[in-house]
Amino acid sequence: MMLSEYGVTAVRIARCVITQEVTKKRMAYMMHMPFNEPSGVFVTINTFPDEELRGCIGYPEPVLPFPEALESAARSACHDPRFPTLKEHELDNVVVEVTILTPPELIIVSKQELPNMIKIGRDGLMLEYKGRRSVFLPQVPVEWEWNVLEYLENLCLKAGVPKDSWKEKDCSIYVFRGHIFRELSPSGDVQEVQEC
Protein backbone atom coordinates (compact mmCIF):
# COMPACT_ATOMS: atom_id res chain seq x y z
CA MET A 1 0.00 0.00 0.00
CA MET A 2 1.40 3.42 -0.99
CA LEU A 3 1.62 6.08 1.72
CA SER A 4 -1.05 8.12 -0.10
CA GLU A 5 -3.49 5.17 0.03
CA TYR A 6 -2.46 4.55 3.60
CA GLY A 7 -3.24 8.18 4.50
CA VAL A 8 -6.72 7.88 3.00
CA THR A 9 -7.29 4.74 5.09
CA ALA A 10 -6.00 6.56 8.19
CA VAL A 11 -8.52 9.40 7.72
CA ARG A 12 -11.39 6.93 7.22
CA ILE A 13 -10.41 5.09 10.40
CA ALA A 14 -10.06 8.37 12.35
CA ARG A 15 -13.59 9.35 11.20
CA CYS A 16 -14.97 5.98 12.41
CA VAL A 17 -13.20 6.30 15.77
CA ILE A 18 -14.50 9.86 16.24
CA THR A 19 -18.05 8.80 15.34
CA GLN A 20 -17.87 5.87 17.76
CA GLU A 21 -16.46 8.07 20.53
CA VAL A 22 -19.18 10.70 20.13
CA THR A 23 -22.19 8.43 19.57
CA LYS A 24 -21.05 5.73 22.01
CA LYS A 25 -22.14 3.19 19.40
CA ARG A 26 -19.77 0.41 18.42
CA MET A 27 -18.73 0.54 14.80
CA ALA A 28 -16.88 -2.02 12.77
CA TYR A 29 -13.66 -0.64 11.37
CA MET A 30 -10.41 -2.30 10.50
CA MET A 31 -7.41 -1.18 12.54
CA HIS A 32 -5.01 -3.61 10.87
CA MET A 33 -2.72 -1.78 8.47
CA PRO A 34 0.49 -2.85 6.76
CA PHE A 35 2.25 0.04 8.51
CA ASN A 36 2.44 -0.92 12.18
CA GLU A 37 5.67 0.77 13.25
CA PRO A 38 5.71 3.52 15.87
CA SER A 39 4.93 6.90 14.31
CA GLY A 40 3.98 10.38 15.37
CA VAL A 41 0.46 11.36 14.30
CA PHE A 42 -2.05 14.14 14.92
CA VAL A 43 -5.79 14.09 14.30
CA THR A 44 -7.42 17.46 13.62
CA ILE A 45 -11.14 18.21 13.56
CA ASN A 46 -12.23 21.40 11.75
CA THR A 47 -15.70 22.84 11.29
CA PHE A 48 -17.13 22.73 7.77
CA PRO A 49 -17.31 24.86 5.74
CA ASP A 50 -15.86 27.56 8.04
CA GLU A 51 -12.56 25.73 8.68
CA GLU A 52 -12.49 26.67 12.37
CA LEU A 53 -10.39 24.44 14.62
CA ARG A 54 -12.62 22.13 16.69
CA GLY A 55 -10.00 19.79 18.14
CA CYS A 56 -6.43 18.69 17.53
CA ILE A 57 -4.56 16.08 19.58
CA GLY A 58 -1.71 13.75 18.77
CA TYR A 59 1.70 12.29 19.38
CA PRO A 60 4.69 14.33 18.13
CA GLU A 61 7.06 11.43 18.72
CA PRO A 62 6.91 7.78 17.61
CA VAL A 63 6.01 6.30 21.00
CA LEU A 64 3.15 4.00 19.91
CA PRO A 65 2.49 1.73 16.92
CA PHE A 66 0.74 3.85 14.29
CA PRO A 67 -2.73 2.23 14.51
CA GLU A 68 -2.76 2.64 18.31
CA ALA A 69 -1.52 6.25 18.14
CA LEU A 70 -4.11 7.07 15.46
CA GLU A 71 -7.00 5.62 17.44
CA SER A 72 -5.93 7.34 20.67
CA ALA A 73 -5.43 10.71 18.94
CA ALA A 74 -8.83 10.49 17.22
CA ARG A 75 -10.61 9.74 20.50
CA SER A 76 -8.74 12.50 22.33
CA ALA A 77 -9.42 15.10 19.61
CA CYS A 78 -13.13 14.82 20.52
CA HIS A 79 -12.21 16.03 24.01
CA ASP A 80 -9.60 18.71 23.24
CA PRO A 81 -9.56 20.73 26.49
CA ARG A 82 -9.57 24.00 24.54
CA PHE A 83 -13.10 23.30 23.28
CA PRO A 84 -16.38 21.76 24.49
CA THR A 85 -16.61 18.00 23.96
CA LEU A 86 -17.63 17.19 20.38
CA LYS A 87 -21.36 16.35 20.14
CA GLU A 88 -23.20 13.93 17.85
CA HIS A 89 -25.09 16.71 16.03
CA GLU A 90 -21.73 18.19 14.94
CA LEU A 91 -20.49 15.10 13.09
CA ASP A 92 -22.06 16.13 9.77
CA ASN A 93 -20.49 19.59 10.07
CA VAL A 94 -16.84 18.75 10.65
CA VAL A 95 -13.98 17.43 8.52
CA VAL A 96 -11.21 15.14 9.75
CA GLU A 97 -7.52 15.59 9.01
CA VAL A 98 -4.64 13.21 9.80
CA THR A 99 -1.01 14.34 9.84
CA ILE A 100 1.57 11.54 9.78
CA LEU A 101 4.86 12.83 11.20
CA THR A 102 8.52 12.15 10.63
CA PRO A 103 10.51 11.69 13.88
CA PRO A 104 11.49 15.06 15.44
CA GLU A 105 15.15 15.97 14.98
CA LEU A 106 17.02 18.42 17.21
CA ILE A 107 18.18 21.49 15.26
CA ILE A 108 21.86 21.89 16.13
CA VAL A 109 22.92 25.37 15.02
CA SER A 110 23.57 28.68 16.75
CA LYS A 111 20.44 30.54 17.86
CA GLN A 112 21.31 33.28 15.35
CA GLU A 113 21.24 30.76 12.51
CA LEU A 114 18.11 28.93 13.75
CA PRO A 115 15.50 31.02 11.83
CA ASN A 116 17.36 30.33 8.58
CA MET A 117 16.96 26.56 9.13
CA ILE A 118 13.14 26.69 9.27
CA LYS A 119 10.89 26.74 6.21
CA ILE A 120 7.27 27.80 6.64
CA GLY A 121 4.83 25.20 5.27
CA ARG A 122 7.39 22.41 5.36
CA ASP A 123 8.59 22.27 8.96
CA GLY A 124 6.69 21.45 12.10
CA LEU A 125 8.39 22.49 15.35
CA MET A 126 8.60 21.17 18.88
CA LEU A 127 10.07 23.18 21.76
CA GLU A 128 11.42 21.91 25.07
CA TYR A 129 12.47 24.45 27.70
CA LYS A 130 12.52 24.35 31.51
CA GLY A 131 10.19 21.35 31.68
CA ARG A 132 7.74 22.93 29.23
CA ARG A 133 6.90 21.65 25.77
CA SER A 134 4.88 22.82 22.80
CA VAL A 135 4.26 21.59 19.26
CA PHE A 136 3.02 23.19 16.04
CA LEU A 137 2.22 21.14 12.95
CA PRO A 138 3.68 22.39 9.62
CA GLN A 139 0.30 23.77 8.51
CA VAL A 140 -0.17 26.06 11.55
CA PRO A 141 2.12 28.98 10.56
CA VAL A 142 0.63 28.88 7.04
CA GLU A 143 -2.92 29.14 8.42
CA TRP A 144 -1.94 32.03 10.70
CA GLU A 145 0.29 33.68 8.06
CA TRP A 146 3.26 33.82 10.43
CA ASN A 147 6.82 34.49 9.36
CA VAL A 148 9.60 32.40 10.94
CA LEU A 149 10.14 34.73 13.90
CA GLU A 150 6.41 34.82 14.67
CA TYR A 151 6.36 31.04 14.39
CA LEU A 152 9.14 30.69 16.98
CA GLU A 153 7.61 33.31 19.28
CA ASN A 154 4.19 31.66 19.21
CA LEU A 155 5.79 28.27 19.85
CA CYS A 156 7.28 29.76 23.03
CA LEU A 157 4.00 31.37 24.08
CA LYS A 158 2.15 28.08 23.56
CA ALA A 159 4.61 26.46 25.98
CA GLY A 160 3.88 29.20 28.53
CA VAL A 161 7.35 30.76 28.39
CA PRO A 162 8.48 34.22 27.23
CA LYS A 163 8.34 34.68 23.46
CA ASP A 164 12.11 35.07 23.10
CA SER A 165 12.90 31.86 25.00
CA TRP A 166 13.85 30.11 21.73
CA LYS A 167 17.07 32.18 21.85
CA GLU A 168 18.14 30.68 25.19
CA LYS A 169 21.03 28.23 25.17
CA ASP A 170 19.11 25.52 27.05
CA CYS A 171 15.99 25.80 24.84
CA SER A 172 15.77 22.86 22.44
CA ILE A 173 13.97 23.20 19.11
CA TYR A 174 13.13 20.08 17.11
CA VAL A 175 11.97 19.97 13.51
CA PHE A 176 9.72 17.40 11.83
CA ARG A 177 7.67 17.16 8.65
CA GLY A 178 4.13 16.04 8.11
CA HIS A 179 2.23 14.12 5.48
CA ILE A 180 -1.27 15.59 5.62
CA PHE A 181 -4.53 13.96 4.50
CA ARG A 182 -7.99 15.48 4.96
CA GLU A 183 -11.63 15.10 4.08
CA LEU A 184 -12.86 17.56 1.45
CA SER A 185 -16.32 17.48 3.05
CA PRO A 186 -17.79 15.69 6.08
CA SER A 187 -17.27 11.92 5.52
CA GLY A 188 -16.40 12.78 1.91
CA ASP A 189 -13.44 12.13 -0.37
CA VAL A 190 -9.98 12.32 1.17
CA GLN A 191 -7.22 14.41 -0.38
CA GLU A 192 -3.49 14.42 0.18
CA VAL A 193 -2.85 18.01 1.20
CA GLN A 194 0.89 18.05 1.76
CA GLU A 195 3.76 15.70 1.24
CA CYS A 196 6.79 16.07 3.46
Explain this structure to me?
It contains four helices and nine strands. With 196 residues, it is α+β, with helices and mostly antiparallel strands. It folds into two domains: 3-102 and 178-194, Glycoprotein, Type 4 Pilin (2-Layer Sandwich), CATH 3.30.700; 105-176, Hypothetical protein ph0010, domain 2 (Dna Ligase, domain 1). The chain has a five-stranded antiparallel beta sheet with strand order 2-1-3-8-9, with helices on one face. A four-stranded antiparallel beta sheet has the order 4-7-5-6. α1 (3-23) packs across α2. The chain is globular and about 50 Å long. The protein starts with a helix and ends with a strand.
Give a topology summary.
Blueprint: H1 3-23, E1 40-47, E2 53-59, H2 66-77, E3 94-101, E4 105-106, E5 124-129, E6 132-136, H3 139-144, H4 148-158, E7 172-176, E8 178-183, E9 190-194
Helix pairs in contact: 1-2
Instruction: Summarize the main sheet.
Output: 5 strands, antiparallel
The first-to-last residue Cα distance is: 18 Å
Number of domains: 2
Task: Determine the number of helices (DSSP H or I, runs of at least 4 residues).
Answer: 4
Q: What is the typical, i.e. mean, pLDDT?
A: 93
Task: Give the overall shape.
Answer: globular
CATH class of the largest domain: Alpha Beta
Spatial order of strands in the largest sheet: 2-1-3-8-9
Radius of gyration: 17 Å
CATH topology of the largest domain: Glycoprotein, Type 4 Pilin
Q: How many β-strand runs?
A: 9
The string of secondary-structure elements, in order, is: HEEHEEEEHHEEE
